[in-house]
Write a structure and sequence with these properties.
By secondary structure, this protein is mainly beta. It is built from 4 helices and 15 strands. The chain has a single domain, classed as SoxY domain (Immunoglobulin-like).
Amino acid sequence: MSIFSRVIVPVLIATLCLAVSSAGLVRLGVAQSAASGPDQPSEETWNSIRGDIFKDRPILDGAGLVFLDAPRRAEDAAIVPIGMGVNLAGDDKRTLQSLTLVIDENPAPVAGTFTIGPRSGVTSISTRVRVNSYSYVRAIAELSDGKLYGVKAFVKASGGCSAPASSNADATRSMLGQMKFRTFRNESDALPEAQLMLRHPQNSGLQMDQLTRLYIPPFFIDNLKIWQGDELVVSMDGGIAIAEDPNIRFNYRPNGAAKFRVEAVDTSRKIFRDEWSIEKSML
């Protein structure tokens, strides 16, 4: 179970029952420094939360090693594309162990932690997230040397966590948990890539039902695992910042297995499973 499910969700629900702002935004973290202003990045929030996320572990400057692709200004705060990963030289024997995506000013700053299978070869992951206010977005990579390396990007976006769902609730319920999976051959020597698309509303707990004027309870994918045959490729512990209908794309090292398998568990403890022949999923 993710940190969000164990800690943030109970606090979020209690807070929503007590008080909500006129915009429907509940801030559980330290607010961005008023002195810095929304256009001026601040490290105040990061300095207050990094210990809760990474304990006392040092985070080294990942420039040149870790990459983070994020828009400077998001077109849609509820669907912000993010790409992250590591660039390891050919003679670098280290491997990627995990990627943690942090959005400083979100109500629940940890958007997701992606644990990498030991023989998967994964070095890059992309997904879509919600950004609630102007914020640093950070990618923290843990390598097999046991060290953490981080980079950051400032993203201008507002209201992503409270934005209403884009799809009809009845339609979403009827298609809940449906998955699509595709794999892509690369023409160069680069590793092939795969993409998982999963139907789920990813309710944040900050969205309002426009008919009842009540807040919709948090309801999102808590954990997701992808295997190539019997070997784990990537596992995600997610939270409210992963956008509606999660979409995850990653590179991988083929191991000769015949199938990919996926298992996803949401906060209602409902389990969704599917599998695909690798050849049939290949474009």
